[in-house]
């Protein structure tokens, strides 16, 4: 990872601060929960700080952060990390915090829908949503046109939301 200049870091922080309300709205729409949204924002900003060397000053930072946030959310949701027990520190004690009932239900529904997806839909979801591959990378890896990647991804996401149960 290349070294980041102090000026670039200051510019990044000054550019990110006004974006937080937009990030919060998007995070709440993804998580449907303010606490989870705040966690997602924190994870996104941490990831952005770690990948600061990839940021181009003057580029659309909101779009960059939103894509990063969406990928983090999908990765966390699809991989089942939402079902893992989190550790909450209270005055030096680490206490397990089980997932909320809503999270458990959402995860169970997702796990129930995942096997109903066709192999090609699961494959494209893993590549793009979980592993963060670009459409172009997925297209090259699967040897199909980018339009096919977009179509499969849209259909797979629709099926995972429960809007279309027969996707094969």
UniProtKB/TrEMBL annotation:
Q: Which domain of life is it from?
A: Bacteria
Instruction: Give all residue intervals belonging to the RNA polymerase sigma factor 70 region 4 type domain.
Output: 117-160
- A Pfam family (short name) is PhyR_sigma2
One GO molecular-function entry: DNA binding
Residue ranges of every copy of the PhyR sigma2 domain listed in the record: 16-65
Which keywords does the record carry? Sigma factor, Transcription, Transcription regulation
Statement: the UniProt record of this protein carries the keyword Transmembrane: no
GO biological processes: DNA-templated transcription initiation
The family database entries (InterPro entries) matched by this protein are listed as:
PhyR_sigma2, RNA_pol_sigma-70-like, RNA_pol_sigma-70_dom, RNA_pol_sigma70_r4_t2, RNA_pol_sigma_r2, RNA_pol_sigma_r3/r4-like, WH-like_DNA-bd_sf
Q: Which family does it belong to?
A: Belongs to the sigma-70 factor family. ECF subfamily.
**What's the protein here called?**
RNA polymerase sigma factor
Q: Specify the taxonomic lineage.
A: Bacteria, Pseudomonadati, Pseudomonadota, Alphaproteobacteria, Rhodospirillales
